[in-house]
């Protein structure tokens, strides 16, 4: 296992909780539908009284009584917003959705806080085992096993073998509880492939990973099998089968760089293609024979709607680049060759990843009609800003692809008409992201396309845009339409807000957060101060369907709201650490290390190692970048910089593409898509 030296006391474990959890029989089955999963809301233990307390200036949710020791403590435990959030909301009962369970486990591993994680999962298995179905318990045990395995090197040598064997028992129990649970097989395969040969688990590792390859329909999310290919490549290398090793390494996408952390999310970023939101090309038939989502071709998703009479095909947005739109459209036709010709396009907003392929769309047929907002010019002007980072749009991106865009039909008010006997409503709104947002409503299909109105960043992070207050109006407008299906411009947003249940719950949490953020900013809190408060609206614990949908944009909502309320300087609640007063860069940090502290390159490397061992990955990356300028020949510093960035990338791999790309570019690497078989 990767070597870890945590300079923190190992928390006392609770093995009796775990053993007790395994003896309980649960009659109720967990309902799972793949490849898209739908999860029942748990009925939380009513004996767990909701804990609310004043946090900053807000009445915010705290961990339940049995988990109150997991509260974040300043200067004691490194702060991570995702861990603080999940430890709070998941302390009120188990959830059927495995995503938060594994995101929390991943966050513990990425920040070297496995000791907290082990204790947290043992407590969860102990307190909530009576509420868990077999599949839910299997998920928790699989995540728990990953934490134990990644912590094994911190166990004393005299106890380590028994620790590892107990971890194997956890994996076996996870599989016995739910034999077809891909998460249990994934955890087993990843762990067995890394243990020393004396445990005789290599063949079992092959068996587990190949089982997953043989069940592609069980892949929980696109990209989850990336590490399956990666570790099969490692196993075949150990076996001396270089041909198979090369094949699976190519499938994993790790042809140029093997990250130092696990990656199973959907982002990829390369110099040539830029940022992709899906790790491999695929088509989802959202509504049989009528609505198709094409993913893996450019940053945004491509959506197509067949008209009621079956004679016309409508495109929602126009892709990221002409070549990616072309490839995506042709990929769709390969899968569904009988589709009618494209005749119409609806532009939900004029960001580069939604209009970049419009020239190809028009080349298919000069009579294709594009509908878009009348006030698109401001969005395009901001799009044309040149960035230091090049792996967002790709090396070949041309400004002409967006600068010459204009709609054929301008929409400045609610419009309704028929296309191929399909009733279409176009509803102009000021979206949360841009002022030129357009909702596309198909009443007979009970379907609304929202574009990026709820993009978690509420504007591109590098640009002064976003309309935080108006996003509430967009949600209300959409809810009034009462759609069965809600599709967004990117798969991640669609997963978070794909139905009215999720959207209603998010709308209420969003309104609360914006109000509380404004209250704090007016009283001298900076965005960073507010983020560290871990603001969670009371009652959130009863809405696991929006755990990710609230956490993903939370910090960005706070930052965007504060940005719109303050000047070039930002106050800070203590008054001692304001932003904007000084100009401290990596140059000054490098001088601190070498000139003022008098550290050698190896001493700096040791300090960076300690930072990461204690979970301070952001600090480690900042100091590593500074150190490189002063110790350019020290390879240890370079490797530690890569590890710090990989840990940060791993933490955001499911919900923050902009941070993912930025961290990737800081270490001058690429993260390739998973190759086609």
UniProtKB/TrEMBL annotation:
Cross-referenced InterPro entries: Bact_Alkyl/Aryl-Sulfatase, Metallo-B-lactamas, RibonucZ/Hydroxyglut_hydro, TPR-like_helical_dom_sf
Domain Metallo-beta-lactamase: from-to ranges: 299-490
SMART domains reported for this sequence: Lactamase_B
Pfam family, one: Lactamase_B
Source taxon at top rank: Bacteria
Name the record gives this protein: Metallo-beta-lactamase domain-containing protein
Species the sequence originates in: Flagellimonas aquimarina
């Amino acid at each position: 296992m990767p070597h870890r030296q945590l300079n923190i006391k190992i928390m006392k474990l609770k093995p009796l909780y775990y053993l007790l959890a395994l003896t309980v029989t649960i009659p109720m089955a967990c309902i799972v539908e793949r490849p898209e999963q739908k999860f029942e809301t748990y009925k939380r233990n009513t004996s767990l009284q909701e804990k609310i307390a004043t946090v900053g200036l807000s009445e915010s949710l705290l961990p339940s009584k049995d988990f109150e020791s997991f509260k974040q403590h300043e200067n004691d435990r490194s702060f991570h917003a995702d861990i603080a959030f999940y430890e709070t909301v998941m302390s009120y009962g188990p959830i059927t959705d495995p995503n938060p369970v594994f995101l929390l486990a991943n966050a513990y591993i990425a920040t070297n806080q496995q000791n907290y994680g082990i204790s947290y999962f043992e407590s969860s298995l102990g307190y909530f085992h009576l509420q868990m179905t077999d599949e839910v318990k299997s998920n928790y045990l699989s995540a728990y096993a990953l934490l134990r395995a990644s912590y094994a090197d911190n166990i004393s040598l005299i106890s380590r073998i028994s620790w590892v064997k107990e971890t194997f028992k956890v994996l076996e129990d996870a599989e016995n509880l739910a034999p077809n649970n891909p998460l249990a097989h994934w955890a087993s395969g990843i762990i067995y492939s890394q243990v020393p040969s004396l445990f005789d688990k290599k063949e079992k590792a092959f068996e587990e990973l190949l089982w997953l390859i043989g069940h592609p329909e069980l892949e929980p999310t696109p990209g989850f099998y990336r590490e399956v290919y990666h570790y099969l490549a490692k196993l075949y290398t150990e076996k001396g089968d270089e041909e198979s090793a090369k094949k699976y390494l190519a499938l994993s996408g790790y042809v140029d760089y093997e990250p130092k952390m696990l990656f199973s999310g959907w982002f990829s970023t390369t110099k040539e293609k830029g940022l992709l939101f899906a790790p491999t090309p695929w088509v989802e038939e959202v509504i049989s024979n009528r609505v198709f989502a094409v993913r893996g071709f450019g940053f945004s998703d491509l959506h197509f709607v067949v008209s009621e009479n079956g004679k016309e095909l409508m495109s929602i947005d126009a892709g990221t680049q002409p070549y990616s739109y072309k490839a995506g459209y042709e990929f769709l036709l390969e899968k569904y060759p009988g589709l009618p010709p494209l005749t119409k396009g609806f532009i939900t907003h004029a960001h580069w990843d939604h209009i970049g392929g419009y020239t190809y769309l028009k080349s298919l047929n000069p009579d294709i009609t594009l509908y878009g907002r009348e006030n698109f010019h401001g969005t395009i002007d901001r799009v044309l800003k040149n960035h230091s980072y090049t792996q967002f749009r790709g090396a070949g991106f041309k400004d002409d692809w967006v600068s010459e865009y204009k709609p054929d039909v301008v929409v400045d008010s609610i419009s309704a008409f028929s296309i191929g006997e399909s009733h279409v409503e176009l509803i102009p709104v000021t979206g949360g992201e841009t002022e030129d947002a357009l909702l596309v409503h198909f009443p007979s299909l009970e379907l609304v396309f929202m574009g990026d109105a709820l993009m978690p960043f509420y504007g591109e992070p590098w640009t002064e845009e976003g309309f935080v207050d108006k996003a509430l109006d967009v949600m209300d407008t959409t809810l009034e339409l009462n759609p069965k299906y809600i599709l967004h411009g990117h798969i991640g947003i669609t997963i978070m807000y794909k139905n009215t249940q999720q959207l209603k719950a998010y709308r209420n949490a969003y309104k609360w957060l914006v109000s509380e953020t404004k209250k704090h900013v007016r009283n001298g809190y900076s965005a960073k101060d507010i983020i560290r408060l871990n603001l969670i609206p009371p009652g959130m614990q009863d809405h696991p369907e929006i755990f990710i949908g609230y956490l993903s944009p939370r910090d960005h909502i706070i930052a965007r709201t504060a940005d719109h309320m303050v000047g070039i300087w930002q106050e800070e609640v203590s008054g001692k650490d304001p932003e904007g007063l000084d100009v401290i860069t990596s140059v000054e940090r490098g001088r601190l290390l070498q000139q003022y502290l008098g550290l050698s390159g190896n001493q700096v490397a040791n300090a960076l190692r300690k930072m990461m061992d204690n979970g301070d990955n952001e600090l480690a990356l900042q100091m590593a970048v500074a150190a490189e300028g002063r110790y350019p020949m020290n390879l240890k510093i370079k490797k530690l910089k890569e590890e710090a960035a990989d840990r940060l990338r791993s933490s955001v791999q499911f919900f923050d593409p902009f941070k993912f790309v930025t961290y990737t570019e800081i270490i001058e690497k690429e993260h390739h898509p998973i190759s086609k078989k």
